[in-house]
Amino acid sequence: MNEAMKAAIVLFDQSIWNRVPEVLEAIKKAGLSVSDANVVYMPDAGEYRFVLVTPEIERNGPRIIYARIQKALQRVHVKFPLSKIFLSTRRVKSNLP
């Protein structure tokens, strides 16, 4: 594991990891269909992202899904940057060390 990845792990653990269960709970309560969720290191971004797998992307497009996520988080007062969420239609395996 390189130094950039180690730094990203520390940053991710401190600022976001604790809220991931709350985020997922809020999204599910809002009725968004989530078939899988994982934390994945994105080398291009140089950080970890919370990956949500949902078939609704194909029906509604990512902008609508991100808007629904934002509303769901606001409803339950969970602060979580949308920039740390990655939407996918396919399952992505976690690469946490």
- Helicity level: 40-55%
Listing every helix as H and every strand as E from the N terminus to the C terminus, the arrangement reads HHEEHHE
In angstroms, what is the radius of gyration? 13 Å
Shape: globular
Q: How far is it from the N-terminal to the C-terminal residue, by CA? A: 9 Å
β-sheet strand percentage: 15-25%
Count of beta strands: 3
Can you tell me about this structure?
It is a single chain. The chain is α+β, with helices and mostly antiparallel strands and 97 residues long. Helix content is 43%, strand content 19%. It has four helices and three strands, in the order ααββααβ. A three-stranded mixed sheet has the order 1-2-3. Helix 2 packs across helix 4. The radius of gyration is 13 Å and the shape is globular.
Task: Spell out the blueprint of helices and strands.
Elements: H1 3-15, H2 20-29, E1 36-42, E2 47-53, H3 56-60, H4 62-75, E3 85-88
Parallel strand pairs: 2-3
Antiparallel strand pairs: 1-2
Helix pairs in contact: 2-4
Observed structural traits:
97 residues; alpha+beta; three-stranded mixed beta sheet; 4 helices; 3 strands
Summarize the structure.
The protein is α+β, with helices and mostly antiparallel strands.
